[in-house]
């Protein structure tokens, strides 16, 4: 009974610490009152947890405000760079950026949101506020629509998502950022079911509406990433032609 109580106490502490860390999801600095409001935890508990997280360098305190600390940044960066999906996708993402000149995103679905695993943007990147580790509602993004179309969800029967399953392409036209749009394709097995991720290009809206110039390379990149994932799972190593993307070799 004593051991069970101790285990439950540790679990409760971890859950509360997780709530406190989740309060910083938007990336901004918060004071104690703001963290209390976002977590719903007692003020004394939040203060105690924050001070412990500061000591562990998971949270940084500057005056009366708190923000994510250097240790969290280190762990987050390590997690992203060790992610096998990102590693498999990176050559195709770089090829897609070189080919189109657009901002390229790699995303996965988490509930009703998408999470950005990679962003390759070049000079245009600063114009689009997406960031690695950031979230966005899936229904308002091209990558989110590409993923929702392949999963059983309340929105699956929407006409727009049915079109995504038929074409392998999803669009976002100035829904999240004025003047910009995105073209996305799901990454997964043929047939449009249970995609593991989605890839997109983001560009000024005029380019997004310009026919196949973006649709074709986005689909090619998504197909090649899926092949890379399958190869990684089976231990296959391919040697693409020098200077060419494997999907075109």
TrEMBL record:
Keyword Cytoplasm: no
Top-level taxon of the source organism: Bacteria
Keywords assigned: DNA-binding, Transcription, Transcription regulation
Residue span, HTH iclR-type domain: 11-70
Residue ranges crossing the lipid bilayer per the database entry: none
SMART domains (UniProt xref): HTH_ICLR
Database matches in InterPro entries: GAF-like_dom_sf (IPR029016), HTH_MetabolicPath_Reg (IPR050707), Tscrpt_reg_IclR_C (IPR014757), Tscrpt_reg_IclR_N (IPR005471), WH-like_DNA-bd_sf (IPR036388), WH_DNA-bd_sf (IPR036390)
Segments forming domain IclR-ED: 71-235
The keyword Coiled coil appears for this protein: no
PANTHER family the UniProt entry points to: HELIX-TURN-HELIX TRANSCRIPTIONAL REGULATOR, ICLR FAMILY, HTH-TYPE TRANSCRIPTIONAL REPRESSOR ALLR
Record protein name field: IclR family transcriptional regulator
Annotated organism of origin: Rhodococcus olei
């Amino acid at each position: 009974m004593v051991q069970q109580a101790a285990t439950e106490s540790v679990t409760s502490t971890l859950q509360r610490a997780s709530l406190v860390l989740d309060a910083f999801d938007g990336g901004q600095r918060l004071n104690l009152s703001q963290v209390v409001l976002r977590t719903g935890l007692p003020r004394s508990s939040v203060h105690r947890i924050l001070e412990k997280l500061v000591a562990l360098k998971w949270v940084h305190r500057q005056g009366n405000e708190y923000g994510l600390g250097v240790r969290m940044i280190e762990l987050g960066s390590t997690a992203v760079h060790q992610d096998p999906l990102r590693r498999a996708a990176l050559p195709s993402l770089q090829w897609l950026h070189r080919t189109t000149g657009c901002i390229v995103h790699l995303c996965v679905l988490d509930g009703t949101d998408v999470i950005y695993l990679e962003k390759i943007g070049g000079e245009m990147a600063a114009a689009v506020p997406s960031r690695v580790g950031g979230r966005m509602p899936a229904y308002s993004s091209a990558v989110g629509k590409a993923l929702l179309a392949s999963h059983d969800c309340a929105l699956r029967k929407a006409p727009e998502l049915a079109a995504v399953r038929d074409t392998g392409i999803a669009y976002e036209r100035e829904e999240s950022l004025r003047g910009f749009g995105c073209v996305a394709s799901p990454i997964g097995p043929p047939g449009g079911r249970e995609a593991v991720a989605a890839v997109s290009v983001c560009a000024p809206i005029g380019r997004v509406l310009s026919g196949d110039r973006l649709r074709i390379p986005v689909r090619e990149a998504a197909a090649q990433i899926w092949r890379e994932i399958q190869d990684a799972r089976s231990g296959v190593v391919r040697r693409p032609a020098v200077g060419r993307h494997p999907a075109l070799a």
